[in-house]
Amino acid sequence: MKKTPILVLLFTLAFAHFINDWYSMCIPPIIPVIRKLYTINYFQAGILATMPYLAAAILQLPVAHFTEKRGIRKSVLIFGFLILAISYFLFSFSGTYMLMLITALFIGVGLSAYHPQAIGILSFEFKGRKGAALGIHGGGGSLGFAAGPIVVGLLFSWMGFKGLHLLVIPGIVMALLIFFLIHIEEKPITSSFKSAITLRILLIGFVAMVTPFFSRGVTAFMPAFLYYKGETLLMANLYTGFMLIVGVAAQPLGGFLSDILGRRTVIVTSYTLSGILLLLFVNHPCLSILIIYGFFVFLPVAVRHAFAAEAGGKKIDTNIAVMYTMVMLGSSISPALIGKLIDALGFEIAFSIITLVAFAGAALALFIKPVKNESI
Questions:
Q1: Residue 376 reports pLDDT greater than 50
Q2: What is the pLDDT of residues 95-147, one digit of tens each?
Q3: Which of 12, 69, 282, 357 is the most buried (most CB within 10 A)?
Q4: Is 320 helix (H, G, I), strand (E, B) or coil?
Q5: Which one-letter DSSP state was computed for residue 30?
Q6: Closest residue by Cα to residue 307 from 210, 203, 216
Q7: H helix intervals, the chain
Q8: Which residues contact residue 123 at a Cβ distance below 8 angstroms, ignoring those fewer than 6 apart?
Q9: How many Cβ atoms from other residues are within 10 Å of residue 194's Cβ?
Q10: Does residue 77 contact residue 13 with C-beta atoms inside 8 Å?
Q11: How far apart are CA 192 and CA 330, in angstroms?
Q12: Domains in the chain, please, with CATH?
């Protein structure tokens, strides 16, 4: 069968990234409602937001290793989206907090199938333009992040929990698109699992863990923070969407700049500025600061993917999965941790404390040696 043209492959996967990351942001918009409905605190709400990332963190590595060993990237991507569709359909019918926790775990099973496989495909096809290609792919994900709060906020405002029944549709549509549009050459890779675990990839993983504290942890409570500040639930989710949508431009730009300036330079600059801007926003909440903050949160996301893909060895998917496992661990820790800090200290202090993670990540990134063909 004829391979998919390279640009069709890129934009199909960018759209798949949109759907995948849109699904990952469908729970935070309704946290204020769930808190009132089930009388839970912010820590318990954070646990609910954590469940998908925890399941994904546990499964990411074994799924990537199995996929490479069998050479079945396309099949795994299809099944991942079908699992997401079914899981959210069940989530929409959950009548208790405990049932929501259980179905949220199955959402994580679906999320575990996407990133290493898709990024591995693109890294192989775009060897010399990896940063730019992964940036465009990342832009699709950012658009999904932004659309999550907006679409779910609108659906919930119009239809209540019944609106969540419609979340089954995008996953089924995406599974069909991958089946019909993506045709790639797949060869089993027999390298050992241990060959992918190197000091460099682990260091990249620790640096990459910074991003979820902001893109997942802070974002999980941004609608609640804005609601607490007096905005309506719909407007709080719209503002959060504005913060996230700038990633559509930030991720491609970050990838492009990292091909020219070096991966470390983009990461260190972005982490430092995102920490400073969150401090400014906490003390002077306004939409313009929120949008600029969102830009620098998402600028380094594609860069970490390129970094992981360049870590060495044949098992690109597994390299990325090692990094993404640590990202998902950060994603699973951050909502619960930030929720606990909010319960104890309030929004302002909790968000201020989390900025320390950004500054620590920027410092740690300085210890990652660039690859030979990367300027610094």
A1: no
A2: 899 999 999 999 999 999 999 999 999 988 887 688 889 999 988 988 888 88
A3: 357
A4: helix
A5: G
A6: 203
A7: 6-24, 31-38, 42-70, 73-91, 97-111, 115-125, 130-159, 168-181, 199-208, 210-212, 219-228, 233-245, 247-261, 263-283, 287-298, 301-309, 316-345, 347-365
A8: 130, 134, 305, 306, 309, 316, 320
A9: 7
A10: no
A11: 26
A12: 6-365 (1.20.1250.20)
Please report the pLDDT score of residue 1 as a whole number.
62
3-state DSSP assignment of residue 310 = coil
Report the Cα 336 to chain-centroid distance in Å.
17
Cβ partners under 8 Å of residue 325, min gap 6: 57, 60, 61, 205
Which tokens hold the place of 194?
A: 């241990």
Dump pLDDT digits (tens) for 253-305.
999 999 899 999 999 999 999 999 999 999 888 999 999 999 999 999 999 88
Q: Is the pLDDT of residue 372 over 60?
A: no
Q: What confidence score (pLDDT) does residue 14 get?
A: 96
Q: Tokens 């906020």: give the residue.
A: 153
Pair of tokens at residue 100: 């929501």
What is the rounded CA–CA span in Å between residue 29 and residue 108? 17
DSSP conformation letters of 128-164: TTHHHHHHHHHHHHHHHHHHHHHHHHHHHHHHGGGGG
List the one residue out of 141, 138, 142, 143 whose CA is nearest residue 303: 138
Report yes or no: 47 and 41 within 8 Å, Cβ to Cβ. no
Phi, psi of 369, rounded to the nearest 5 degrees: -75, 130
Specify whether the backbone of 230 is left (phi greater than 0), alpha (psi in -120 to 50) or beta: left
> Which amino acid is located at 30 in the chain?
I
Tell me if residue 182 falls in helix, strand or coil. coil
CA nearest to 26, candidates 96, 109, 84, 112: 84
